[in-house]
Design goal:
The protein has helices spanning 17-23, 25-28, 40-59, 73-87, 103-113, 132-138, 161-171, 245-283, 310-316, 337-342, 346-349, 363-382, 385-391, and strands at 5-6, 67-70, 94-98, 118-122, 143-147, 174-178, 197-201, 212-216, 287-290, 300-305, 320-321, 352-356. With 404 residues, it is of the alpha/beta class. Helix 8 (245-283) crosses helix 12 (363-382). The protein starts with a strand and ends in a 13-residue tail after the last helix. Bound molecules: pyridoxal-5'-phosphate.
Length: 404
Amino acid sequence: MKLPIYLDNQATTQVDPDVLQTMLPYFTQIYGNAASRNHEFGWTAEAAVEKARAQVGRLIGASDKEIIFTSGATESNNLAIMGAAEMYKEKGRHIVTSAIEHKSVLDTCEHLEKSGYTVTFLPVDRYGQVSVDSVRQAIRPDTILVSIMTANNEIGTINPVAEIGALCHDMGVIFHTDAVQAAGKFPLDVEKMKIDLLSLTAHKIYGPKGVAALYVRRRNPRVRLAPIMHGGGHERGMRSGTLNVPGIVGFGKACELAMKYMDAEVPRLRRLRDKLWDGIRAGLDEIYLNGHPTDHLPNNLNVSFAFVEGESLMMGMKELAVSSGSACTSASLEVSYVLRALGVGEDLAHTSIRFGLGRFTTEEEIDFAIEKIVTTVKKLRDLSPLYEMVKEGVDLKSVQWTAH
Ligand SMILES: *Cc1c(COP(=O)(O)O)cnc(C)c1O
């Protein structure tokens, strides 16, 4: 077993060796520009891109013509929201989203608010779920877009996306979902789930970083997007720029493998994640699960360890690569906005750690992690006067703290 152990698969994943092998020839041998229509180099590159487009489409039940390649899910989310907002602005300027979307959705919506759009940021319940009813109540005659993530990247909660999709379809509102974390974890079908726009990214499913896709529905209804990138008119005019051929080839392979492995991988991940949770619970008290008890990604575990600062805990167990809060905000010590939206108190939120398991996580690593977490938390709690008081039966709320 090699240390440190990678348990941050919601932040990014290792490139699968089979994905890498598939990509390699496209750097040095088949290096043509997929838009070069005049020679063999261009033709073979284009054929490889089209094969990958079909592979990506297949993962979500879409046709290849409905896949637009981008540089990341950040761009896919920007294109979906900005593109729909611009295209349908004569129809209305109201957007519905949730309070715990990825920053690439929230910041894009906030940006639109500055230019005359109104955005409803729906609250979530204590498990991080958006209710279908709250979406129904938020939709107005001028609503043009609903954007609700399939599964959350911090707490792993899965939303009732098929129900929200059906509702939006009935009400004639475009439905976008950020399915980055859900891809490969359970079957996605844009037809059954009535999804109009869907974001994916390669690096969360064992593909390379910097390549992603946006699914754009072509019929029933046909969704049109104004481009946010202007240039040569690639990707049906929706996303200009020379295609990242090796990256796209790798992304396609990653999608193929995700489908191939899903049936075996998901139960394995769930078993290891449950083992981790059971092991932590057996060794420690005063711990709290953040996220939904059942509608939950199989590879995510977000736990608050009361009386232990998340940052100190991470420092105390450097053998484990985990994350406190979201990787995108962990540069600052602000409490995660996701946990805040769940109603997790400031104190407990500061003690939270996210464990993200993946395809390459082993049983041995989970055994090591349990042992490391339990001993480190115990050690830190031994230094905590608050924990000691609670153990002695003192009700902390009754204590009169003196200001200094
Ligand atoms: C990682 C992530 C993104 C951003 O994807 P990039 O390809 O890194 O830009 C968007 N949404 C969710 C839910 C994510 O986990």
